[in-house]
Amino acid sequence: MSEQSLLQVKDLSVSIDNELPILHNINLDIKPGETHVLMGPNGAGKSTLGFTLMGNPHYNVTEGNILFAGQDITTASSDKRAKAGMFLSFQNPYEVPGISLSSFIRNAYHAQTGAPVKLLAFQKSLKAAMEILSMDESYADRDLNVGFSGGEKKKAEILQLLMLNPKFAILDETDSGLDVDAVRTVSKGIEEYQKKKDGALLIITHSTKILESLHVDYTHVLVKGNIVHTGDGSLVDEINANGFERFV
Amino acid sequence: MNTDLNMKVNVLPVYTYNFLKVNDSNIELSDISIDTVESPAAAELPQGVSVKRGISFDEAGEVFRANKDRILVTTGVPGDPNGDTSARDSEQAVRTGMGIDADKLFISAGAKSEVYTVEENAKVEKPVVIRFDMKDGKGVLASQVIHAKKNSEVTIIMDYDSGADKEAAGFLGVSTRILAEEGAKVTVVKTQLLGSRYLHFDDLGGACFEKGAIRLVSLELGAQKVWNGSYINLAEKEADFTSDTGYLCRGEDKLDINFVTDHRGKKTNALMQFKGVLMDKAQKTLRFTIDFKNGSSGSAGDEQEDALLLSEDVINRSMPIILCQEEDVDGRHGATIGQLGEDLLFYMQSRGIDEEEAKRIMIKARLDSVARIIPDPELMQRVQYYIQNII
Amino acid sequence: MSDNKQVVADIDRSLYDFKDVESEKDFYRMAEGLTEETVLKVSEEKNDPEWMRDFRLKCLKLYEEIKMPNWGPSIEGLDMDRISSYVRHKSDMKGKWEDVPEDIKNTFEKLGIPQAERESLAGVGAQYDSELVYHNVKDEVAAQGVIYTDLESALHGEYADMIKEHFMKLVPPTDHKFAALHGAVWSGGSFVYVPKGVKVEIPLQSYFRLNAAGAGQFEHTLIIVDEGADLHFIEGCSAPKYNVANLHAGCVELFVGKNAHLRYSTIENWSKNMYNLNTKRAVVEENGVMEWVSGSFGSHTSYLYPMTILKGEGSKMEFTGITFAGKGQNLDTGAKVVHVGERTSSHISTKSISKDGGIGTYRSSVTIQKTAKKAKASVSCDSLMLDSISRADTVPAMDIRTSDADVGHEAKIGRISDEAVFYLMSRGISEEDAKAMIVSGFANPVSKELPLEYAVEMNNLIKLEMGGH
User: Fold this and answer.
1) Can you say whether the dihedral through the CA atoms of A175, A178, A180, A183 is positive or negative?
2) Burial of A82 (0-12, 13-18, 19+ CB in 10 A)
3) DSSP, res C373
4) Which pTM was predicted?
5) What is the DSSP letter of C94?
6) ipTM
7) b/e map of B93-116 (b: 16 or more CB within 10 Å)?
8) Per-residue pLDDT tens over the stretch B332-351
9) Cβ–Cβ of A143/C429 closer than 8 Å?
10) Among candidates A57, A97, A98 on the partner chain, residue whose Cβ is nearest the Cβ of C422
């Protein structure tokens, strides 16, 4: 099975700034085209896993490995991981004054592919992606995330997902703080990504709103830093109905 | 003591353009006559606090000299700021806001200091109150050292008042030097309600060890010429300095301030706030500096000024300086200087309050916000009454 | 910044650092040091009118009397006895590019000056060491009556009286030691006159190149923008790196008339052995507007505080500046403004970056005189520390003498946050590029005020500095 795996997480333990571990012996196996959901109550360590997979230097892997497309990336810097085809949609995207959203995406695209960006084609596909996300065109020229509302920031993250088209994307609480319409729009963007080809997803969430219109292959429940249960897509509905109580 | 010598005080930590005439200030000693060279005694000494009286100014500084290396801790990374003036005050037992010339005055006058010592772990709730009864014609030099030992807490109130004689003349010069050892908290409250022809200076120098904290609340409401200096060394981890200064300058008052917080330890914190009002032909010069020394990573410093100018003839000078030789710090400064906002005025007028009354309300609001922090109810009332009477 | 990234490949420092060996036979070089004799010799070389010769001698005296400033960076490394105050090529100034001597032409070609002129400038002046070697104005601009010439010939021509009336009146030689020095040995520079109501649509540019080792450059720029006129003037500076100190003590005097508008942009990239003690000053009449855009990247030591006197009612000033202090640099920069007229307004916005032990000081003064009723002034200065061996100091001053003014001041100091770097890296951008991007973003308020090719140059300079080459 390992030949087919896109992301393999083996016995992963993680701590922040060398204090007590937050994640214990995490194992995951995600194949191309699969959609995994990671659920769990607040403080379970869900975002920690997202940051660790993407290589945030504040999080230290104390045990275990992360393999992506067969390569051990446990110690690789986050730009290397992105170049390999990983993507993280941030829960709180950072504001970067002075760089416009569109030029940032172009820079990232250029950094990842090494190919020159054809301006007209780029603008066309950016416009199309923004339409899917019901984003006003003016956002393209605004400074990256600066002064964006919570919903606009999340849309800007999904916009980057669509434009950069990674092999594997982690969506960290992309639905949190959004109203019903915004959740629907963001879901539409995610569906669009799923449609594209073999893109795999790890959706981190503590609610289930965003999952309603998405196909889910596996659901993992994370409690106090441990994956306590793994099931198929129907587990989402069960948690939706009964909460996490039986796992705690 | 009368002499022709002049004192150069409140020297900026770094010089700037000379044409501004703000690099320092002069006190002409010929304007001063001194008849008393020691501080009045505290009304009563709460448990946990002891005092030694009659110590020479120089000897009283011994506790700082003994700890000099610890206070002036340095990482040795070179690079002084342009126009650095620190060498000037290097002979002081502990650097003060007004600087070496203030020390020299105390020493040459043979001034005697009070040395207050707060016992280890003593949480002294009752404040030490020192009342300065400054009648017309007096000339006083007073100095104290406050040595708060580990994990002690103490409040010192210095109450400068000329009483009913609103036009009293005279001189009062005060030096306060503070050492807050590990975990010690020293609160100093200074209220200045001197007669309108008084000359006054108030000099402060201090150092905080790990988690030591100095809290300063001061109100400059009276006197004609005032110099106010403060230099606090946050020598060790998580040391803290917080100050609130309120002032009101009227007539031809001159107020000259020099505050410096010197961050040396990691995660040290400083907040310096100045709120005041200038009226008539008053002049104010405010120098305030946050100095992040190399090694002070994780520290934060904030300096804020809010000056209300209520006459066409006032002069308001501000030098908000930030010096920084450390990457991981958060330093900020903000100032708003001007008259009553038109919007605010309109709002008040729409509620039937005329312009004069609106001004009175805003003066009171500014000064009250500092006065309210005074931990002694009787003094707080007296100060509020004083403010009420002026406006 | 990405636009630039695709347009321009990485540059390297050699673009500015190349040296052209000045053969002795082609260049006249004055003996080092400063005496009455050398001053008289400069005066003779320049064929000064009598008043100018006397003025130079008066300035020399002042230079000897005035003390060094006590507040700025050390200038101990500058030994005036070893600075040659006058170096020129033994050929005259040209009005045609083809006629400029080959060696000098090569230098400017490498800097891209003639190309820029063809593409986007209304006129160009190029100064090489102490003299202008080339001056040209597009015909259509000249036809509008715009005068753009070297100051020396202007001293003998139609505008001689206008120059006498304005020369060093705004920056008197008594101002400071190096203003006096400038008055004594000034050479080269430009004179611009924009007549009433004339709007110059595209910028004029002067480029200053100090090629000789151990030399001083003391050019004088005098610009008069008459009532209702409009001009954008660009100044670029560079020099190759030598092991001996070079000195730049130029002087810029700007007169902005009633309802006139002047934008003065500078990208200063002197080599890192330069002592840049430059004085710039503008006076603005009723409802006139003065805009400064200033980027300081080069020099070993800088004292640079463009000053604006808002004299006329309703006059305005805007200053946008960036300073990047890298290894071995002590850049003391900022701005000064004096509000005199009623309802005058000023806005100063600066960014400073310190790295590799560099010392960056923001220094300013805002003076609001009693006459400046309803004046508005705001200052905002941000500093970015890129490591803990550098310095970023902020030394502003405000002197306010009327209650009827509205003054705000904000300053912040900080660093590049780890989170921001991680965010960019998670999109595939390398750590170095991520940091350069954040710094460019920090500098963006300045670069967006520059014409495109200068913004490109500035971003390249930032990348160069961030790369630590």
Assistant:
1) negative
2) buried
3) T
4) 0.85
5) B
6) 0.91
7) bbbbbbbbbbbebbeebebbbbbb
8) 998 888 887 777 776 667 77
9) no
10) A57
